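Predicting holo structure, iron/sulfur cluster bound.
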Amino acid sequence: MTYSVKEMYYTLQGEGAHSGRPAVFLRFAGCNLWSGREEHRAEAVCRFCDTQFVGVDGPGGGKFETPQELAAAVAGFWPGATAGAYVVCTGGEPLLQLDDALICALHAVEFEIGVESNGTIPAPAGIDWLCISPKGNAPLQQMTGDELKLVYPQQEAAAQPEKFAQLKFQHYYLQPMDSDETEANTQLAVDYCLRNPRWKLSMQSHKYLGID
Ligand code: SF4
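Done. Tokens:
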């Protein structure tokens, strides 16, 4: 399989349970909930996306013909020995492309594999940290994982926090929706967490730090 990668870079994970952890971000091109083109946003299943995931033209991006070639490129971003190294597979929707062969190849170069998925595609085995972030009315297929991270608030009935409380995740996070109402959204998320202490607040710390 040829893997299409929008961009790749070394940074700190900004969100959720691994916030602050150094990681290689591997952003796959393409998503199944939006084309990524502004003229399609209004009709998309997911309409609040803040990510560029179209094409393979970003820094470190490109087409990779084999899983080994892509894993070697990921490893090239890690400073020093890769024991304990961490890669965050994101997108777009990474599970459109992340397959068993790539999971093996990333493990072979000693990377721990994190995935940030919208939950509409069942995850393959072997992922070390699975974060599911449900979007709008998109039907959830992946009901288990390490971290459920819900962008909040969302209007759709299917995307209310109560809908996910019975699923089997280790951590539950609300992440204020980034928009021209971020401050109000943050307060709503804080209030919800205080009323429902199973939920924790996830801030997009990379945006406050001004890093990618
Ligand atoms: S599911 Fe994620 S990558 Fe896809 S459009 Fe929504 S926010 Fe963007």
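The chain has a mean pLDDT of 96.
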